[in-house]
Amino acid sequence: DAMVIQNPRYQVTQFGKPVTLSCSQTLNHNVMYWYQQKSSQAPKLLFHYYDKDFNNEADTPDNFQSRRPNTSFCFLDIRSPGLGDAAMYLCATSREWSGTGVNEQFFGPGTRLTVL
Amino acid sequence: GENVEQHPSTLSVQEGDSAVIKCTYSDSASNYFPWYKQELGKRPQLIIDIRSNVGEKKDQRIAVTLNKTAKHFSLHITETQPEDSAVYFCAARFMNSGGYQKVTFGIGTKLQVIP
């Protein structure tokens, strides 16, 4: 059973043309993350939502935005994709609470973005 | 913030031999250390994790050890098989300045098991 779903799996866009990637989850986790992973590199956290609270990483470009309309869905918007934004984008979820709560991150299959 | 160093970046072993991947972290407040396996073109998948109140954890052929004093943790795979070939990422979780838990990944180790 799919737990973290990403659509589309492959996305091709043109330089400068806005694109939206989507993520949904059936785990009812309160935290959702977006990572960018380039070839042969570790996943790099772009931002995450803790419930409705948005937490942007300091080095995430303004070109990247996110929306979380409800617990299940989270979107990654790239306003003006550049060639350097071509990568795999991974969505992940976790259940977080204070103390020693379960913190495993569950990753979606990713969306591979190509910028022409 | 947290800094996680991982080595080696590539590792080749003969089938049946053991593989060891080592990571160090900088933030002594880190309290959770997962290991992910990522096959080519697929999502990272958790294979084992350890919390800061435990020194060692084992799951069949996979084990993880944690030395809090030295701030390093290691992944041990015994009796390696060709299907163990993948990229392995270590990670450390810590609390960032905004009060949020954050996971920082190592650069990854590409493991090749030679039949």
Structure in words:
The complex is a heterodimer of chains A (116) and B (115). The model of chain A has no long low-confidence stretch (mean pLDDT 91). In chain A, the strands form two sheets. In chain A, strands 2, 4, 5, 6, 9, 10 and 11 form a seven-stranded mixed β-sheet that branches. Helices cover 0% and strands 50% of the residues of chain A. Chain A has 116 residues and is mainly β. Chain B is mainly beta. Helix content of chain B is 0%, strand content 58%. Chain B has strands spanning 4-7, 10-14, 19-25, 32-38, 45-51, 56-59, 62-67, 72-77, 86-95, 101-105, 109-114. In chain B, the strands form two sheets. In chain B, strands 2, 4, 5, 9, 10 and 11 form a six-stranded mixed β-sheet that branches. The model of chain B has no long low-confidence stretch (mean pLDDT 92). Classes of the chains: A mainly beta (116), B mainly beta (115). The interface between A and B is medium-sized, with 20 and 23 residues.
What does the secondary structure layout of this molecule look like, with pairings?
The complex is a heterodimer of chains A (116) and B (115).
Chain A: E1 4-7, E2 10-13, E3 19-25, E4 31-37, E5 44-50, E6 53-56, E7 64-67, E8 73-78, E9 87-94, E10 106-107, E11 111-115
Parallel strand pairs in A: 2-11
Antiparallel strand pairs in A: 1-3, 3-8, 4-5, 4-9, 5-6, 7-8, 9-10, 9-11
Chain B: E1 4-7, E2 10-14, E3 19-25, E4 32-38, E5 45-51, E6 56-59, E7 62-67, E8 72-77, E9 86-95, E10 101-105, E11 109-114
Parallel strand pairs in B: 2-11
Antiparallel strand pairs in B: 1-3, 3-8, 4-5, 4-9, 6-7, 7-8, 9-10, 9-11
Summarize the structure.
In chain A, 0% of the residues lie in helices and 50% in strands. By secondary structure, chain A is mostly beta strands. In chain A, a hairpin with a 2-residue loop joins strand 5 and strand 6.
Computed Rg of chain B: 14 Å
- The assigned structural class of chain A equals mainly beta
Specify the helix fraction band of chain A. under 10%
Beta-strand content estimate of chain B: over 45%
Q: Which band does the percent of strand residues of chain A land in?
A: over 45%
What does the oligomeric state look like here? heterodimer
Largest interface: A-B, 20 and 23 residues
**Got a strand count of chain A?**
11
What is the average per-residue confidence, as pLDDT of chain A, rounded to a whole number? 91
Cα-to-Cα separation, first versus last residue of chain B: 41 Å
Instruction: Report the uncertain regions of chain B.
Output: none
Which outline of chain A best applies? globular
How would you characterize the largest beta sheet of chain A?
7 strands, mixed
Number of strands of chain B: 11
Please work out how many helical segments of chain B DSSP would assign.
0
N-C termini distance of chain A:
34 Å
Mean pLDDT of chain B: 92
**Residue ranges of chain A: pLDDT <50 for 5 or more in a row?**
none
Structural class of chain B: mainly beta
**Series of H and E elements of chain B:** EEEEEEEEEEE
Query: So what's the overall shape of chain B?
Result: globular
